[in-house]
Design brief:
2 domains, 23 strands, four-stranded antiparallel beta sheet, Neuraminidase, five-stranded mixed beta sheet, mainly beta, 3 helices
Length: 330
């Protein structure tokens, strides 16, 4: 009898594992393929490319002036005293104060840890002055950030845990424990939760709504900002792709999203079958029927693993997770 019980429990466990594996493949859209959609005036940006998959290689911050006729990528010098050897930047955001001071917020993963670094941009010297390092227990797996003040921000945690194995287990079991955190020097709190994997975050031009990409749920969440800085969900926009980072076109309020059509290709890299790229433009997201347009798509032959797309004055910049960057004139 005991053997039958053991066998039955083993069968249930295997069935559960199989169901979770199938669900994970669906969340990764592991079978999806795309047709390329090209733009006519594009070229790869010099100086940005795949150097190494090694996580111990230090990162940097690059700047491009899109007002220039032929913009180029320039690496900004970072002030002495900051630990450049372990610099591993992830999400970034800027805040311009009333006196026109430009602050740069950077999600950093030094030695697989999680910090937020605040810099001041020194325009005349094209350099960054490091001001502050922020660590907090409510920021265990920080992915992206949107600055709303000189020391205030919202940030996404793509996982509840910081331990790599527990992160994998959390993803595999589809626990929906990811969240959004509000940070200020006086208060730090979770302001939205229940995400599969909260990723990109940005804010509407009128500062009333926060937009969050849930990459494995294929959704963009619209969250209304409250006077106490809490967030109230007002809408969810379902999509047919893994939405990574979001950016706002300031004049129109359109959302531009760097996306991964097939997440399995992204996480299990095969140079003979590379991850593809996709850029979406979402217009009138607050309306009953937002317009979603695929502006660019590539099967990996030109651009692999698009993670962000940003538009300024008719110019589109597409970045990737670990590949190259593309500049297009729309």
């Amino acid at each position: 009898m005991g053997k039958l019980v053991t066998l039955g429990l083993l069968g249930i466990a295997l069935a559960l594992l199989g169901e979770r594996l199938l669900a994970l493949r669906n969340r990764l859209k592991a079978s999806r393929e795309i047709e390329s959609i090209d733009l006519p005036n594009c070229h790869l940006i010099k100086g940005i490319g795949l150097h190494s998959f090694a996580p111990d290689k230090p990162g940097g911050i690059l700047m491009m002036d899109l007002n220039e006729e032929k913009p180029r990528a320039l690496e900004l010098r970072i002030s002495r005293g900051f630990d450049l050897a372990s610099f591993n930047p992830h999400g970034i955001s800027t805040f311009i104060d009333n006196d026109n001071t430009v602050y740069l917020f950077v999600v950093n993963h030094p030695e697989f840890k999680n910090t937020v670094e605040i810099f001041k941009f020194e325009e005349e010297e094209n350099s960054l002055l490091h001001l502050k390092t922020i660590k907090h227990e409510l920021l265990p797996s920080t992915n992206d950030i949107i600055a709303i003040g000189p020391t205030h921000f919202y940030a996404t945690n793509d996982h509840y845990f910081s331990d790599p194995f527990l992160k994998y287990l959390e993803t595999y079991l589809n626990l929906h424990w990811a969240n959004v955190v509000y940070y200020s020097p006086k208060e730090v709190k979770v302001v939205a939760e229940g995400f599969d994997s909260a990723n990109g975050i940005t804010i509407s031009p009128d500062k009333k709504n926060i937009y969050v990409a849930d990459i494995l749920a294929h959704e963009i969440h619209v969250l209304e900002k409250q006077p106490d800085m809490n967030l109230t969900q007002s809408k969810v926009l379902p999509l047919d792709t893994l939405v990574d980072n979001l950016s706002i076109e300031p004049l129109s309020g359109d959302i531009w999203a760097g996306c991964h059509p097939n997440g399995q290709k992204l996480f299990v890299y095969d140079p003979n079958n590379p991850p593809s790229s996709e850029v979406l433009r979402i217009q009138n997201i607050l309306s009953e029927k937002p317009t979603v347009t695929t502006v660019y798509a590539n099967n990996g032959s030109v651009l692999q693993g698009s993670s962000v797309a940003s538009v300024y004055n008719g110019k589109l910049l597409i970045g990737t997770l670990y590949h190259r960057a593309l500049y297009c004139e729309l």
